[in-house]
Amino acid sequence: MLTPTDIRAELITRFGESAFLTQATADGMPTLWMDADRLREVLAYLKREASVAYRMLYDITVVDERAREHREGLPASTFTVVYHLLALEPVREIRLKVALTGESPSLPSIADLWSNANWYEREAWDMFGVRFDGHPNLRRILMPPTWEGHPLRKDHYARATEVDPFSLPPERMRVEEDALQFKPEEWGMKRESDDSEFMFLNLGPNHPSVHGVFRVVAQLDGEEILGAVPDIGYHHRGAEKMGERQTWHTYIPYTDRVDYLGGVMNELPYVMALERMLDIEVPPRARVSRVMLSELFRIMSHLLFLGTFLQDIGGMSPIFYMFTDRQKVYDIIEAICGFRMHPAYFRIGGMAMDLPDGWDRKVQEFLDWFPERLDEYERMAMRNDLTIRRTRGIGAMTPEEAIDWGATGPMLRATGYQWDLRKERPYAGYDEFEFDVPVGTRGDCYDRAMVRLEEMRQSVRIVRQCLANMPGGDYKADHRMTTPPPKERTMQDIETLIAHFLTVSWGPIVPPGECEGMVEGTKGLNSYYITSDGGTMSYRTRIRTPSFAHLQMIPFMSRGHMVPDLIAIIASIDFVMADVDR
């Protein structure tokens, strides 16, 4: 089995020792700096020729290095472009970095190597101003087309109070109105001729079928879809920018708002990354509690998906039953965390508080009641002839196609590829639990729904094991970086009082370094890649979400289908726009 040392040695053997500079990181991931002129060659080798194939482009991001103080031993760089590749069998990751200088740096595009590189490169251009030569349609993706500047650069303002009040003079209004006009060529669409009979159908940005502030423009020949262009960014709130101005622990509530259906599962990769950077071991009680709450949120997310999915293909009743079921889980979450949708319950080192008295009774009542409901949903809705006819064979893809597009979670498993991070590389104690990994066979809309239904059954199994084997002991690590001195001691000496005040108000000082935390979220792989410059706030917080990767697959999945099929495909992806736009 290939180790991190082996892949470094393999690359050095293939390209020469002078081609790479090794960087040590807190997560232990192989991290190599390289020159831009070898980028495509090295990436192609890792995907197609390496002894362990890094088949998935997991992420591309950028770091503005201009304000960073602790860069000892690293190449001089104005901007650093980071490529994150993932091998699935066995699970291996590698991080490749390219140092760029100047105000308008550029790199060659790799959109022809990986299909999903298209949006990641557009995002890097939009947020940081890094150009990708040869990109098929390098235009803004999250910000409006008339936006000035690149928001994640260090010299771009973070708050509206830092600029003059918003106003539009008449000449600027005309520019904005012109930018809103739909011009197919600017969206990457092609007309056969000026008198062609193709029609462009606009869905959104506010339309029931697109599940939020999201727009799709479809090019039609009759009702057949020739092409489709997703348009995102209407819900962009600068979640990564916020990470640069919040202390480490005060940023935790912001994570809940990313996949707002995933609750504490958003918090888990963030606190896992910080715990690794601070060398904190989470107590067993907190570890099992985290798993239990994460799986309860997985059930709630999948229930909402199934209800809206069935509604979009014509089943009006199921969503009302499933919302009732979700409320029962929310009652448990509220009893434990104090909040329902955005609990902000996890902390660096554990949880905000211990499980309350009576939590086990409420969980047991739900476990006794819910499995029969799942059986009923399968009989009533998923074995229904209408559901089968509307979704079988629609939006189908193979495992190879899914991996090329960066699909993870149920989107990948529906193709028949049995891969779940909780099994392949257990984290947060998942290796202590017994559960199966459901898979489909066709990779179509129907299989995506059935996989999620079965995943709810597996989540019930996991929660049962948490209930039966909940450890005693502390709910949070007794570590100086995350737990303040006992309150009673603060009145004994001034040093303890100061330490308590600083820990509560500012939180820990995280040493310089980088670390990633990755989890199997409700919709696929979700991760936080954190860069610390040795302060009380993050220097760079990168949020990699599954929904961003999945939405750009819509043109591929819908081509050749009919308009009603497009609605089923969109519903089967299971996304929330906050998870896409961030």
Automatic annotation (TrEMBL):
MF-aspect GO terms: NADH dehydrogenase (quinone) (non-electrogenic) activity
> Where are the stretches annotated NADH dehydrogenase I subunit C?
1-173
Q: Which SUPFAM superfamilies match?
A: HydB/Nqo4-like, Nqo5-like
Q: Where is this region: NADH dehydrogenase I subunit D?
A: 197-582
**What are the EC numbers?**
7.1.1.-
The UniProt record lists the NADH-quinone oxidoreductase subunit D domain at 312-582
Looking at its record, which EC class is this enzyme?
translocase
**Could you tell me what this protein does?**
NDH-1 shuttles electrons from NADH, via FMN and iron-sulfur (Fe-S) centers, to quinones in the respiratory chain. The immediate electron acceptor for the enzyme in this species is believed to be ubiquinone. Couples the redox reaction to proton translocation (for every two electrons transferred, four hydrogen ions are translocated across the cytoplasmic membrane), and thus conserves the redox energy in a proton gradient.
Q: What is this protein called?
A: NADH-quinone oxidoreductase subunit C/D
Organism, per UniProt? Spectribacter acetivorans
Source organism phylogeny: Bacteria, Pseudomonadati, Pseudomonadota, Gammaproteobacteria, Salinisphaerales
